[in-house]
Amino acid sequence: MTLVYPGSFDPITNGHLDIIVRAACICDKLIVAVGNNESKRPAFTVEERVEMIRASIGDREDIEVTSFTGLLADFAKKVGARAVIKGLRAMSDFEYEFQMALLNKKLEPELETLFMMTSVQYSFLSSSAVKEIARNGGCIDGLVPDCIRERIARKLTCR
Ligand code: COA
Fold first, then answer.
1. Sign of torsion, CA 158 36 128 49?
2. Options 16, 49, 131, 149, the catalytic residue
3. Structural domains in the chain?
4. What's the gap in Å between 97 CA and the centre of ligand 1?
5. Which of 105, 122, 96 is nearest to 18 (CA)?
6. What is the pLDDT of residues 11-60, one digit of tens each?
């Protein structure tokens, strides 16, 4: 079974990586899909976000990293995914994710949405928090994968 894990990943955090590694254990192939949503005014380009995810994951045949534009439901159908998987951090994520899951079901009735609880040590983490800390010269150790920490800090503190 193929699963799609979509997100903005601006940038990927250890919370995202936790979901990626765990989700890959319950499917044959996991497609990590970076949404190309310019309205969110991302700090990193789509290419940078894809590269940082690839660097964080390392060489794994069961995980593919790509980007998409347009509707998630159309992308999932195109790549033959049976379901979309999303991480849930807290009840505050639920309302928005529930709405998205229902919209995607309406657009593509055969597509399921699965939710995986974020590990407790990452329940407070978000990409915006990482960016705010880095922009202000704070320490992002332990919040993002080690191999991309310098790259994130360099880009955000140079602005
Ligand atoms: N660990 C840490 N942070 C997490 C997390 C986890 N496990 N799970 C979610 N988050 C955070 C993200 O860092 C992000 O934080 P931010 O807002 O500070 O950047 C936030 O939760 C939400 O992020 P994400 O899961 O990336 O969702 P999103 O709301 O940015 O949506 C898409 C991204 C690509 C899934 C969405 O825009 C999409 O589906 N686009 C296609 C258009 C479409 O089909 N829309 C639906 C029909 S209208």
1. negative
2. 16
3. 2-121 (3.40.50.620)
4. 9
5. 122
6. 999 999 999 999 999 999 999 999 988 788 899 999 999 999 999 999 99
